[in-house]
Design goal:
alpha+beta; seven-stranded mixed beta sheet; 9 strands; binds zinc ion
Length: 727
């Protein structure tokens, strides 16, 4: 099966309504092979814990306590060797190709490497060190070449093709037919039909890209880790709430500035600073530091890398017979063509920019009334937006935050999962974790007590962990060999003082529910073949289940039970909830515009063909053509746009969040047209047609089964407040 580093990343928006996330899907990763194969590498790997089967309770669990960075390279090499040996066995089978001896054999292939890559993925996102980065730098091109060796294996492809074209395949189950199609399609998309010379060029391009992606990532991580804003005077902290001061003081200690206050160069530190700091000069400084990540000249600058990535991608698309990289990437999605994706983005762009003008006018008003004597600049946006929020909706995010304790909200999510999915969560203490912050729960069916899977939770920011939030599948569910799933949620919440409850913002709470939606998608999986399991769906569909789950945070059932004041224990007052609801689409112009600017630049970069691109100049010109409001910057500027340059996965695919949100908004309507968010009948359909099917059915068809019709865009426009009242 294909290895997906199931990283579903998420980036907070200013407003809670929509959340961005990312996943790595599509594109053939290394194919795996045989369980039964002996490891064919040097004897010393026998003791390598990364290669061992996962044993113990819960159908086995990852032995995180035994991982050493020095074990990665030999484990990856042994895993690849084993995998290739199995591929040879399948490819050279003397019998005629059948679904069982080819497709099922591939599904069972590469189990060892799959396990190694699970650890490798976790260390790259959450436990990075200079020592590990050196391993990555060496192994990334090797893994890429390995993957090509499989998709370019002529004999193997002929067998897959034979099964795909065989009349016998028509008699297989729908899931088996879809799996066969997927293998065939993925191999063709990866160049299986090319001639030998083209295949060699492709391999070379892929290796160069793998190397560039690693460099891009490491540069970005360096700018996020090394650059900091140090404040050494009390007056520098003007406007910051106590929790931020505490966090900045703690960062001062860990970043070797004891006694000073430090703002790290990550979104979870910068956004609150920009929201609350009264010091306009420091806001500007922090803002510039953040938006210039990867764009500072010097050794960590990403511009030249991006130019090269775009050139290589254009060359690869041409080799594969596609007009541009965008055409190649979008073909294998719900949107099908870049034009369809662009049409949706452009439909939403205009109302979003119009809304920004209104928002800026409101902010300028507040600034004028204060006698600030300024014109709103990008580093003022969050600050004055917060003041407008207070003035217009009488809503103070700090007031809300006092009711949002991380531990309670987590229990709230479990409760929702119980209502909608019939899941029960029990903490477990008998499995190892890779860092003391991580906690683990067993998930069971509430009625039958049947084991469903494990959920790992890694909530806090730390050095070596990338910013944002994401979901990960450590092991995919499958009925073929009766494997249960293991998933994780990862975030970058700021730890408070020792022993005190961690209070999070409404946006963070939304993020929490969002990622949990991905986890539930993985946990609900009920399919036979691992390649089609859980979140292994189209990129522009995968954010639908997660965005949908965000809606349950604001249900009275959750807020009454779980949004309890951290001092009094009293539930959040109804009138405060009302104020939150009234402010629901507040600042949506900003949130949608900063997101869409990134999504549009991504698509246009990848539609530009083989034109040699200067990223900064291209970004500037494109935004000018679009009429980007000068008070807003792209959510991810090109030199730091990890979604699209740290791998292929979200390239020409950042639009996916919007695409998925059309489904999300429309799907929540099904609950509201029924008995509300906890309507059992609708929830049953949601599980049956959306959450449990993975990629066993075409998503458009799955959606129709759930909703009884195709999705409509109206609900999205309404959700974002882009429909004039009275319409
Ligand atoms: Zn997501």
């Amino acid at each position: 099966m294909y290895k997906n580093f199931y990283t579903v990343r998420i980036f907070l928006l200013a407003n809670a309504v929509t959340i961005m996330a990312i996943t790595c899907a599509a594109g053939p990763g290394p194919v795996k092979t045989g369980k039964k194969y002996k490891v064919v590498a040097a004897p010393f790997v026998d003791d390598n814990p990364l290669l061992k089967k996962w044993v113990g309770s819960y159908n086995g669990f990852p032995p995180f306590d035994k991982v050493k960075v020095a074990d990665f390279k030999p484990a990856l090499e042994a895993g690849m060797a084993e995998n290739l040996a199995d591929i040879e066995k399948i490819a050279n089978d003397k019998r005629p190709a059948t679904f069982d001896n080819t497709i099922v054999a591939l599904e069972r292939a590469g189990e060892t490497l799959d396990r190694v890559q699970t650890f490798y993925g976790i260390w790259s996102t959450s436990m990075s060190t200079p020592e590990f980065q050196a391993v990555q730098k060496e192994m990334a091109p090797k893994l890429s070449a390995f993957s090509d060796k499989i998709t370019q294996n002529e004999k193997l492809f002929r067998r897959i093709e034979a099964v795909y074209k065989s009349p016998a395949t028509k008699k297989l189950t729908a899931e088996q037919q879809r799996l066969t199609w997927k293998y065939y399609n993925d191999f063709v998309r990866a160049g299986a039909k090319l001639n030998a010379a083209s295949k060699a060029s492709l391999t070379q391009i892929n290796q160069q890209l793998a190397d560039l992606y690693t460099s891009f990532n490491q540069n970005l991580l360096a700018d996020e880790t090394d650059l900091i804003l140090v404040m050494d005077k009390e007056e520098d902290l003007a406007g910051l709430p106590q929790s931020l001061r505490d966090a900045a003081a703690a960062a001062g200690n860990s970043k070797k500035h004891p006694g000073a206050w430090v703002i790290s160069n990550t979104r979870s530190s910068i956004d609150p600073f920009l929201t609350y700091s009264d010091r306009r000069d420091l806001r500007e400084k922090a803002w510039r530091m953040f938006v210039n990540r990867g764009d500072n000249g010097g050794e960590h600058d990403n511009n030249a890398i991006i130019t090269e990535i775009l050139q290589l991608r254009a060359a690869r698309a041409a080799l594969l017979g596609f007009k541009t990289h965008a055409h190649w990437r979008v073909e294998n999605t719900m949107a099908k063509t870049p034009e369809n994706a662009l049409a949706l983005m452009e439909a939403v762009w205009k109302p979003a920019v119009e809304r920004v003008k209104e928002e800026v006018a409101d902010m300028q008003d507040v600034a004028n009334k204060e006698g600030a004597n300024i014109t709103i600049e990008p580093w003022d946006y969050r600050y004055y937006a917060e003041k407008v929020r207070k003035a217009k909706y009488d809503l103070d995010q700090n007031e809300v935050k006092e009711y949002l304790q991380l531990d309670n909200l987590r229990e709230g999510m479990f409760w929702v999962a119980g209502e909608l999915f019939n899941f029960a969560f029990t903490p477990v203490n008998d499995v190892p974790v890779y860092h003391p912050d991580i906690k683990v729960w067993e998930v069971k069916d509430k009625t039958t007590g049947k084991h469903i899977g494990l959920w790992y939770f890694d909530p806090y920011a730390r050095a070596g962990k990338r910013s944002g939030a994401w979901m990960n599948a450590y092991r995919s569910q499958q009925k073929l060999d009766k494997v249960t799933t293991i998933v994780s949620n990862n975030a970058n919440f700021i730890k408070g003082k020792e022993g005190e409850p961690v209070l999070i913002s409404w946006d963070d709470a939304s993020t929490l529910f969002h990622e949990f939606g991905h986890a539930l998608h993985g946990l609900s999986s009920n399919v036979t073949y691992p390649t089609l399991a859980g979140t292994n769906v189209f990129r522009d569909y995968v954010e639908f289940p997660s965005q949908l789950l965000e809606h349950w945070l604001s249900t009275p059932e959750v807020l009454q039970r779980f949004a309890l004041h951290y001092k009094t224990g009293k539930p959040i007052p109804k009138e405060l909830v009302e104020r939150i609801k009234r402010a629901d689409t507040f600042n949506e112009g900003f949130a949608t515009t900063e997101y869409l600017a990134s999504a549009l630049v991504d698509m246009k970069l990848h539609l530009a063909g083989d034109k040699r691109i200067d990223p900064d100049a291209f970004e500037k010109e494109t935004l000018e053509q679009l009429g980007m409001p000068k008070e807003i910057v792209m959510r991810h500027r090109t030199p730091q746009f990890g979604h699209i340059f740290s791998s292929d996965s979200y390239s020409a695919g950042y639009y996916s969040y919007l695409w998925s949100d059309v489904l999300t908004a429309d799907a929540f309507g099904a609950f509201m047209e029924g008995k509300g968010p906890y309507d059992k009948e609708v929830a049953k359909k949601l599980r049956q047609y959306i959450f449990s099917v993975g990629n066993t059915v075409d998503p458009a068809e799955g959606y129709r089964n759930f909703r009884g019709r195709d999705p409509k865009v109206d609900a999205l426009m309404k959700k974002r407040g882009f429909v004039k009242k009275g319409f």
